[in-house]
Amino acid sequence: MSVLYLVCDLDNAVFTFTATMRTTWEFSRLSSFHQENGKDKFVIHQATDASNGTRWVLENQSKGAGNIFGTPKYAGNGPPFQGGPSPPRGMWNVWDCPFHLTDVMPRYDAIQSPFTVKVPFVEMAYREEGAVAYLELVICETALDDESLDRALQEMRRIMMNLAKRPEMVLFIRTDARQATSVPALRHVRKFLSFVQKDVGTESVLVGRGSAIILHTSPAAQGSKCCDRRSAVALEDDMSTASTEASEHSFLSDVEHHPAALEHIIASRRQAIAEHYSTRGAIGAEKYPATHPEHLGADAADELQLVPLWCKTQGTGAAPSSWTIEL
């Protein structure tokens, strides 16, 4: 009962909460980057003021937040835990959507794997090994078009939504972009970023734990693949953007098994880039817009489309700590 599962009744996505004190449960199915930077710090605790009709609330204690966005449908307590009360099981209202809280880990069927999906500009290979899922993308020479992008994003959505329903699962993504020869149109870049930030924003936080991208060693080629010269600023020697398949495999191996060994790579750059580009957490953005007001102006939003590849720590309470390179 030290672990509770808050399940969305709309799509069965599972939010895991772990007891941190006798009467406090904190959202734990997220990366250590989010935890270390105070992002998506969601806490179930007893209300200090019971005038709202309940003794328990779900509060956003992220930096700059502090709003209550979840309450149980009925007042009262759940079963005793470590000599104190616990949150009531059953129906909750979270982000104005129906959820339910349980202490039984949800089970959901996995996607049949391994499998491969081919569209003109990318080949996608998916497999699972225990509680770890791997998605490998090989970008082809064919120019990107709307239909192919839609199909690829649809497949990624299917994978990530399935993993989000299975609280034990995490996802690593490997992208080989060495064959890519054309620069994607800005509308495709924006569509992809919107997909990551909104369509699967919650799923990305719940399951995403690492990503490695193989690029050509040429700075000009790296810059073009990032769509803008400003994107090339972070593609320096101290970044873990792989230029060979061997270095990429080494990086992902460190991601899974020895994350501490990479500490020196991003110690200074991580904080600087995080402060510049991170304005809010991604979780809940696509389903619960009321909890994620848009803080970016037009100029900042355009700049965000060109945010460079960068490295940041990741991890989860149920899986090894890891690292990721993100747009």
Molecular structure report:
The protein has 327 residues and is an alpha+beta fold. It folds into 2 domains: 3-102, no CATH class; 115-326, no CATH class. It has 8 helices and 15 strands. It has helices at residues 32-36, 146-164, 186-199, 201-207, 219-225, 245-257, 263-277, 298-304; strands spanning 3-8, 14-21, 24-27, 42-46, 56-60, 68-72, 90-94, 97-102, 115-119, 122-129, 132-139, 170-176, 208-214, 310-316, 319-326. The strands form 3 sheets. It has an 8-stranded antiparallel barrel. Strands 9-10-11-12-13 form a 5-stranded mixed β-sheet, sandwiched between helices. A two-stranded antiparallel sheet has the order 14-15. Helix 2 (146-164) runs parallel beside helix 3 (186-199) and helix 2 (146-164) crosses helix 4 (201-207). The longest helix has 19 residues, at 146-164. The radius of gyration is 20 Å and the shape is elongated. The chain starts with a strand and ends with a strand. The relative contact order is 0.14. Residues 219-244, 255-282 and 289-327 have low confidence and may be disordered.
Brief synopsis:
The chain has 327 residues and is α+β, with helices and mostly antiparallel strands. Helix content is 27%, strand content 29%.
Counting DSSP H or I runs of 4 or more residues, the number of helices is 8
Largest sheet: 8 strands, antiparallel, barrel
Largest sheet, spatial ordering of strands: 1-2-3-4-5-6-7-8
Q: What is the H-and-E element order?
A: EEEHEEEEEEEEHEHHEHHHHEE
Average pLDDT works out at: 72
Structural class: alpha+beta
pLDDT < 50 stretches: 219-244, 255-282, 289-327
Strand segment tally:
15
Helix content: 25-40%
Q: Which oligomeric state applies?
A: single chain
Strand content: 25-35%
C-alpha geometry:
elongated
Total of domains = 2
Distance between the termini: 37 Å
Rg estimate, integer Å: 20 Å
